[in-house]
Amino acid sequence: MNLSELRKGNKAEIVKISADKALRDRLHAFGVMRGEEITIKGCSIAKQTMEIQVGATLIALRREEAEKIEVTQI
To answer: pLDDT, tens digit, for every residue of 5-27?
Structure first.
């Protein structure tokens, strides 16, 4: 399941990030990495962007970025 498939309030654990090195490095800088638990805090209309929480950090992701993050829902 991809991160983009989740809805507001869902929690998940990151299983895999299938992105290029630049995006992976940027996500890692925010604490988004395999094994971390995330919470979906909000989504825009048509789910073009979503806000996720990793630890105490809130991050906004584009749909294209969220589709590259494989998760398991908790």
So the answer is: 999 999 999 999 999 999 999 99
3-73 fold: SH3 type barrels. (2.30.30)
- Which sequence spans correspond to the domains of the chain? 3-73
E strand or H helix at 70: strand 69-73
Q: Can you give the pLDDT at residue 22?
A: 94
Supply the pLDDT for residue 45: 83
User: How does 4-14 read in b/e, with b if 16+ C-beta sit within 10 Å?
Assistant: bebeeeeebeb
The pTM assigned to this predicted structure is: 0.87
Backbone angles phi, psi at 67, to 5 degrees: -70, -20
